[in-house]
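Lab notebook, design round three. We kept the backbone fixed and only want residue identities now. Task for the bench partner: fill in a sequence for the structure below.
Input structure tokens:
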């Protein structure tokens, strides 16, 4: 390993040379209190910044082992360190220079506490992975500034990450909140619940693009008949609304907070930071948001539980399209979630295909069953729960047809929930919908699909395909873009990066004798034991944990996907 003073000399000697000469600084450098590793050096001042790591030995970092004693606590601590680094890097004064000169950046965390490859901790050391914009004047190396950046500013930043420098109270609270939320999520199934919304939770956000809690929002208050109490390991007693397994309807007038509640439940698969307002809103981790998504491709999927007898005799037990309709896309989203064993389906009337959700008596009389390819969800929702244990939570303010089938009906009035199950059932008795059940093919008998990744789609002239990610919208894999803008449970672009890496990984070590769902489970299992870093031989700093559903969602939206049964 090279001594840090040698790095200073090297950088000063590089001053004024062409930018490419920076390449020689790749390597490991010994500083008095940590090691700096420069893993990748950028080719020009405007290119993706250079990737670095700092490794701080625990005798300097000083984190008590109790702070990372189990997986849950370790993830909370790593998340906290990433935020701390992000904040310190943001607060710095950045000197001027070409392109990314002088930048220090780490993956930017949102309100979710997630496992990321930005920070690691064990008994030996703390490791942080970040990017540095090596300074330039024009296209020439600014060696003096580089020396200041790498050998003065980074060491200063490292000092701010040591345990002694952190607010122990804030750190402790962050980790405890995260561990409590994990604990609550585990308790749900023991109590026959699929979700819990704590009293006092703040559900609405400031805006569609600002995910901080809305100021002056009405705090959540559970209705007495759905109230449950838990004793969390750290926080102690907590009360709130428990949503039971089965079929739950959320009803209420327009603008009374239905979609806001559902959104909070969608994201309750993740834990949130203490100031978020939703830190004690937890949902079963296998809950999947379902929506219509016109235009998406569908590859070899058995849609027959929902769609049969299409005009022109198209086969719906192995359905292909490059451009699904609203109802077909929503049916595909459901079947794909069930293929990966989703336990809860979350559906909002705002984003569904009405003809897949309801078909009332009048429509049944006008359009005979043999002229309607669609089996509406209302006729599959009961077998789904009774035979397969899959619960549904539906926001449905516009139709009372689901009253008959609902186990729980929650009405929102000015954001206040009320349990109106009894009333809804009484109304269903008084005004029967008189529908004829149109059950289609039973759900859950679908043929497993087999994954065949198309090698040419992932290679370009013998080299691995280029991978790019555009925010939360899409993954570009070689020639193809995978549109993920309607996969609503993705929250950080690092998840898309990790998913893209997982697809390449599946391609490089193709699973043998495994069907589509098994191959996805196998890779998730491997990541749960080896960590996300296993996705790449390079020490990537911007992978963020994802679920099997979102990996499947990306593969299912990839137009180069090959599947057979
Ligand atoms: P719905 O789906 O019932 O039509 P939304 O969930 O879209 O209603 O909410 C309507 C508006 O009310 C949104 O602007 C949302 O931010 C706001 N809102 C939701 N819940 C609350 C709350 N608890 N306190 C204050 N405003 C809220
Ligand atoms: Mg709504």
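Proposed sequence:
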């Amino acid at each position: 390993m090279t001594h840090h003073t040698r790095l200073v000399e090297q950088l000063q000697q590089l001053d004024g040379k062409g930018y490419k000469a920076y390449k020689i600084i790749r390597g490991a450098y010994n500083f008095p209190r940590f090691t700096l590793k420069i893993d990748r050096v950028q080719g020009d001042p405007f290119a993706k910044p250079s990737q670095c790591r700092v490794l701080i030995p625990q005798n300097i970092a000083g984190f008590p082992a109790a702070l990372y004693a189990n997986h849950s606590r370790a993830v909370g601590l790593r998340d906290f360190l990433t935020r701390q680094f992000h904040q310190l890097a943001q607060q710095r004064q950045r000197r001027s220079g070409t392109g990314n000169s002088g930048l220090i950046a780490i993956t930017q965390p949102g309100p979710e506490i997630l496992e990321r490859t930005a920070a690691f901790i064990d008994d030996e050391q703390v490791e942080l992975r970040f990017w540095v914009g090596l300074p330039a004047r024009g296209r020439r190396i600014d060696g003096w500034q580089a020396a200041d950046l790498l050998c003065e500013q980074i060491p200063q930043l490292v000092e701010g990450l040591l345990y002694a420098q952190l607010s122990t109270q804030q750190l402790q609270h962050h980790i405890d909140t995260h561990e409590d939320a994990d604990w609550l999520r585990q308790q749900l199934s023991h109590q026959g619940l699929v979700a819990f919304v704590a009293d006092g939770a703040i559900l609405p956000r400031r805006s569609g693009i600002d995910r901080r809690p809305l100021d002056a929002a009405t705090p959540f208050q559970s209705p007495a008949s759905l109230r449950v109490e838990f004793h969390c390991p750290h926080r102690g007693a907590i009360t709130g609304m428990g949503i039971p397994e089965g079929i739950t309807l959320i009803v209420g007038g327009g603008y009374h907070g239905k979609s806001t509640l559902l959104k909070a439940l969608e994201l309750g698969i993740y834990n949130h930071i203490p100031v978020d307002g939703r830190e004690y809103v937890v949902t079963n981790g296998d809950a999947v948001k379902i929506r219509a998504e016109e235009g998406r491709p569908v590859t070899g999927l058995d849609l027959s539980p929902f769609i049969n007898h299409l005009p022109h005799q198209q086969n719906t037990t192995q359905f292909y399209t490059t451009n699904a309709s609203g109802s077909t896309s929503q049916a595909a989203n459901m079947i794909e979630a069930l293929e990966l064993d989703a336990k809860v389906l979350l559906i909002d009337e705002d984003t569904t295909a009405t003809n897949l959700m309801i078909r009332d008596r009048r429509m049944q009389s006008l359009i005979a069953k043999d002229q309607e390819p669609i089996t509406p969800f209302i006729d599959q929702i009961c077998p789904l729960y009774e035979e397969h244990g899959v619960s549904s939570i539906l926001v449905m303010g516009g139709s009372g047809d689901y009253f008959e089938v609902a186990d729980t009906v929650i009405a929102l009035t000015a954001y206040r929930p009320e349990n109106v199950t009894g009333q809804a059932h009484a109304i269903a008795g008084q005004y029967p919908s008189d529908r004829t059940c149109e059950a289609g093919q039973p759900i859950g008998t679908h043929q497993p699909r087999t994954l065949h990744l198309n090698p040419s789609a992932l290679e370009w002239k013998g080299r691995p395909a280029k991978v790019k990610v555009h925010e939360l919208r899409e993954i570009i894999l070689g020639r193809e873009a995978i549109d993920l803008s309607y996969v609503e449970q993705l929250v950080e672009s690092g998840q898309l990066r990790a998913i893209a890496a997982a697809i390449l990984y599946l391609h490089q070590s193709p699973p043998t004798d495994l069907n589509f769902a098994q191959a996805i489970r196998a890779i998730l299992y491997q990541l749960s034991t080896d960590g996300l870093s296993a996705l790449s031989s390079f020490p990537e700093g911007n992978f963020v944990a994802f679920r099997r559903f979102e990996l499947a969602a990306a593969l299912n939206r990839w137009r180069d996907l090959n599947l057979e049964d």
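Keep this in mind before ordering anything: DSSP finds 14 helices and 32 strands in the chain.
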